[in-house]
Amino acid sequence: MNSYSAFAYVYDQLMDDVDYIGWVDYLEEIFKRYNKRPKNIVELACGTGNITNILAKRGYNLIGVDISEDMLFVAQEKARAMGVDVIYLNHDMRELFLPSELDSILCICDGINYIIDEKDLLNVFSSVYNHLKDKGLFIFDISSYYKLSNILGNNTYAENFQEVSYIWENYFDEEQATCDFDLTIFIKEGDLYKKHEESHCQRAYKENEIIEKLKEVGFHKIETFEAFTFSKPKNKSERIYFVCEK
Ligand SMILES: C[S@@+](CC[C@H](N)C(=O)[O-])C[C@H]1O[C@@H](n2cnc3c(N)ncnc32)[C@H](O)[C@@H]1O
């Protein structure tokens, strides 16, 4: 079952309460904190371009990469409507072929949680390292182990809107440290609703596991923050930011 296929077309509606402008402000604060003025930026797992298009509108050169053609279709439509030029590439971030010497590489809102296999994670990090110029920044976030195991895991969420409704059932596997999301989405078509089903799987990583892997590929200047702050992550932080300078 594909991830982010039917879901792609309702993703933005379901993420309606997310403050993407504030999110991009935070990324720019990180650039400032590190005295960077990046020009060429790649966003991995860019989805429907919520972050990508806003950054492009603010004058950065953006390439957005995602494994889902449907998410990219929506991203491109939005870029056109916003009058911004973004190159969108349908790639799996586990096999990256990008222009090298990038100023910054981003992976925002869980992209890294979708890398289940530790060897793949090492490949992603190593390839990011090789595509960055010296002193370039790799910025990404994860949903924390705490969030996937204690909040989302073994819980069911549902919302019911006029055009779309969904049921989101989650199962956390302690042994594999993975959270399976089973999504059932009902999208209005005329007077009826069509049922779509898809499954996603995210890996719950502990902060130290990730830091070890980043060091293994060559990153040594690494800071972690509780999302949208510059404070250290806490036991119950739900989103953790990693900022790595090459
Ligand atoms: C939660 S969405 C985040 C989208 C976007 N960054 C945002 O902030 O709205 C996660 C995205 O990761 C993408 N993804 C998952 N695995 C991927 C992979 N191996 N390579 C590239 N993209 C991937 C999915 O297609 C999806 O668009």
UniProtKB/TrEMBL annotation:
One of its GO terms (biological process) is methylation. Residues 41-136 form the Methyltransferase domain. InterPro entries: Methyltransf_25. GO terms for molecular function: methyltransferase activity. It holds the Pfam family Methyltransf_25. It comes from the Bacteria. Keywords: Methyltransferase, Transferase. This is Class I SAM-dependent methyltransferase.
